[in-house]
């Protein structure tokens, strides 16, 4: 019987075109969630650990065994400029999956962000690297480099399935995944969300104390006032 491979690597898949990425360039993650049916955000435990927080890029999914980062390093061999390393560890928190050396090399290769459901190390060094890093936390414990792992195959982390080429949008509020096949539709809906948010901001600036829809909602028969 043949032994299972240490790494399974897929190196080619579609990425979102630049024009599509540009549609999300300045959109807050909350707007992106609203534009795709109030879904897509990773678990809140995956949070920004660096001063830089803004990501808009294409997912390069990686699965790595806990306490190991052979797969994230091997992903550097297939990464393209504009990619986001999305590393699933099955929520492993006892040792880091990346530090400033790995992510410094990733930045040099054109990576624009790093997202993991594991933990990282070297936070001052990560800030110096300059790309946004989202993780569950920090541990100085070091990983091995033995595998197993996968690169360029779908992973699940933070309660969301991430496929290669999906759009990753992140800011200080968290990380949102937009499936590549739906990104055009979401981008169109994002314009409606943008207009709605602008109208609500204008109402607040004008002194509104309630949203315009509230009075009609409270007048419906399923609402009971007790005094």
What is the domain tally? 1
Strand percentage = 15-25%
Name the CATH superfamily assignment.
Ribonuclease E inhibitor RraA/RraA-like
List SSEs in N-to-C order.
EHHEEHEEHEEHEEEEEEEHH
Q: What is the CATH T-level topology?
A: Glucose Oxidase, domain 1
Task: List segments where confidence is low: pLDDT < 50 over at least 5 consecutive residues.
Answer: none
Descriptive key words:
227 residues, alpha/beta, Glucose Oxidase, domain 1, 7 helices
Q: What this model shows, in words?
A:
By secondary structure, this protein is of the alpha/beta class. It has a single domain (7-192), classed as 3-Layer(bba) Sandwich (Glucose Oxidase, domain 1). It is 28% helix and 24% strand. It is built from seven helices and 14 strands. The strands form three sheets. Strands 1, 2, 3, 4, 6, 8, 10, 13 and 14 form a nine-stranded mixed sheet that branches. A three-stranded parallel sheet has the order 5-7-9. A two-stranded antiparallel ribbon has the order 11-12. The longest helix is centred in the last third of the chain and has 23 residues, at 183-205. The mean pLDDT is 97.
State the gist of this model:
The chain is α/β, with parallel strands linked by helices. The chain has helices spanning 18-23, 29-35, 70-75, 100-108, 123-129, 183-205, 214-218; strands spanning 7-9, 47-48, 55-64, 83-88, 96-98, 113-116, 119-120, 133-135, 137-138, 149-151, 155-157, 160-162, 167-171, 174-178. The strands form 3 sheets. Strands 1, 2, 3, 4, 6, 8, 10, 13 and 14 form a 9-stranded mixed sheet that branches.
């Amino acid at each position: 019987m043949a032994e299972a491979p240490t790494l399974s690597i897929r190196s080619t898949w579609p990425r979102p075109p630049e024009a599509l990425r540009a549609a999300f360039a300045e959109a807050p993650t909350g707007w992106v969630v609203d534009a795709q049916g109030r879904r897509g955000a990773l678990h809140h435990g995956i949070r920004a650990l660096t001063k830089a927080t803004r990501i808009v890029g294409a997912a390069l999914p990686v699965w790595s065994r806990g306490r190991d980062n052979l797969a994230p390093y091997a992903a550097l061999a297939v990464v393209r400029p504009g990619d986001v390393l999305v590393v699933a560890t099955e929520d492993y928190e006892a040792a880091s999956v990346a530090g400033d050396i790995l992510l410094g090399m990733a930045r040099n290769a054109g990576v624009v962000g790093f997202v993991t459901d594991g933990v990282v190390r070297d936070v001052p060094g990560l800030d110096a690297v300059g790309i946004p890093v989202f993780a569950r936390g920090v541990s100085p414990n070091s990983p091995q480099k033995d595998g197993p792992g996968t690169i360029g195959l779908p992973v699940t982390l933070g309660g969301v399935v991430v496929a290669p080429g999906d759009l990753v949008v992140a800011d200080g509020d968290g990380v949102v995944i937009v499936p590549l096949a739906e990104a055009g539709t979401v981008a169109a809906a994002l314009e409606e969300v943008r207009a709605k948010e602008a109208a609500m901001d204008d109402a607040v600036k004008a002194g509104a104390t309630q949203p315009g829809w509230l009075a009609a909602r409270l007048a419906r028969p399923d609402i009971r006032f007790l005094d």
